[in-house]
Amino acid sequence: MILRIYTIIHVVISLLGIASGFVVIYGLLNADPLEGWTKFFLWTTVLTSVTGFFFPFRGFTPAFAFGIISLVVLAAAIYARYPGELAGHWRWIYVVGVVLAQYLNFFVLIVQSFQKIPALKKNRSDAERPVVQNHTACGFGRVRCAWRLRDGQIPRRTRFTHFEGKRMIEIRDLYQTNKNARKENR
Questions:
Q1: Residues 86, 31: Cα–Cα separation, whole Å
Q2: What's the rounded Cα separation, in Å, for the pair 78 and 55?
Q3: Which candidate, 122, 83, 124, 74, places its Cα nearest to that of 102?
Q4: What would the pLDDT profile of 127-157 be if each residue is shown by its tens digit?
Q5: d(CA 46, CA 98)
Q6: Spatial distance between the Cα atoms of 116 and 120, rounded to a whole number of angstroms
Q7: Rounded to 5 degrees, what are φ and ψ at 59?
Q8: Exposed site from 24, 46, 96, 169, fewest CB < 10 Å?
Q9: What are phi and psi of 166, to 5 degrees?
């Protein structure tokens, strides 16, 4: 009974962290720091990782590996954000740390959903595991692409095409668009 309550608390904290993580990433894309959301995201994500270590597992599991990686990434992001004050190289360390922490939490959500939700568990096969991982990575790849598009690093006339089952980017006027974007930003 206590383990069930503990699991519910862990899941609620995790879902709050994931939801607030998307808000923080939206703020990053719009150059809005969203102080309150950022603190909430960092705290709930740290709590998610810490509470994950107290489940009764035997041996070293992938969950422990994800928790350790997440805490290291979060420590770097928190240091970059607050003591580092986003100065110099701490800015990109913070952005990468926040996005990576969100990715890890979201990835665990997808994997746990396929392991715990009966409807998803029934329809899952071992051959579909890479598909789940690829969909998670593609979602965050779109966030990265939107960030670069906002900064003018990818021209606005970019379009996506499919070629031999792989996603490719057709880029037109790359150098001219980047040059114009840099001039506008100055």
A1: 13
A2: 25
A3: 74
A4: 555 555 555 666 656 555 555 545 555 444 4
A5: 12
A6: 8
A7: 80, -175
A8: 169
A9: -110, 145
